[in-house]
Amino acid sequence: MFTHLRNIETAFQQNKKIVALVILTSALISIAAIYFSFAAYQKASAHVYVLANGKALEAIAADRKDNIPVEARDHIKMFHHYFFTLDPDEKVIAANIGKALYLADESARNQYNGLKEKSYYNNLISGNISQQITVDSIQLNINSAPYYFKCFATQKLIRATSTINKLLVTQGYLRNVSRSDNNPHGFLIEHWETLANRDTILAP
């Protein structure tokens, strides 16, 4: 009889171990399933699709801090492009300057007003002069906000009889602001000033 009881006790202990093992295995499988599901969700949510010209283009979401240098340099390029790309047409000048002024503070408007008072834009129109700019390089310090930058560019004045190339160097600071249709990068140029704007090459 005691032998029979010992067998029952042994079987009961084995059953307890098996049940405990099953429960532990189930718990591990559940934790692993939750972990991999969450990882898959995060990976999927990092991918977005942008519809452009009838085509779905995949984009990957990232923290803004990872993109600050790229977005900041593009913001600076856009501003200089709109401010200095001009044709002898009042509407073109007004449209480009208007876009540029959304990207900078009153320091840019002050430079615009100064050029306007000197009849700079009227001279472009009366002389049928087109103005273009190529940004050659941008020095950017993102170690502390607002971010200091120095922009080196080549400015080209195109006349019917000649083309003048100028070296243009400007500097300023970038401050974070809300993104909008007029300011897609969410930066505002502050304390913008021209350090150099001199002729380099005169070509016939």
Give a written overview of the molecule:
This protein is an alpha+beta fold and 204 residues long. It is 47% helix and 33% strand. It is built from 5 helices and 6 strands; from the N terminus they run H-E-E-H-H-H-H-E-E-E-E. It has helices at 2-45, 64-84, 90-101, 106-117, 120-126; strands spanning 47-52, 55-60, 130-141, 147-158, 163-176, 187-203. A 4-stranded antiparallel beta sheet has the order 3-4-5-6, covered by helices on one side. Helix 2 packs antiparallel against helix 3 (90-101). It is rod-shaped and about 110 Å long.
Averaged pLDDT? 86
What fraction strand? 25-35%
Structural class by sheet pairing and helices:
alpha+beta
| Radius of gyration, whole Å | 32 Å
Comma- or semicolon-separated keywords:
204 residues, alpha+beta, Nuclear Transport Factor 2, Chain: A, 2 domains, four-stranded antiparallel β-sheet, two-stranded antiparallel ribbon, 5 helices
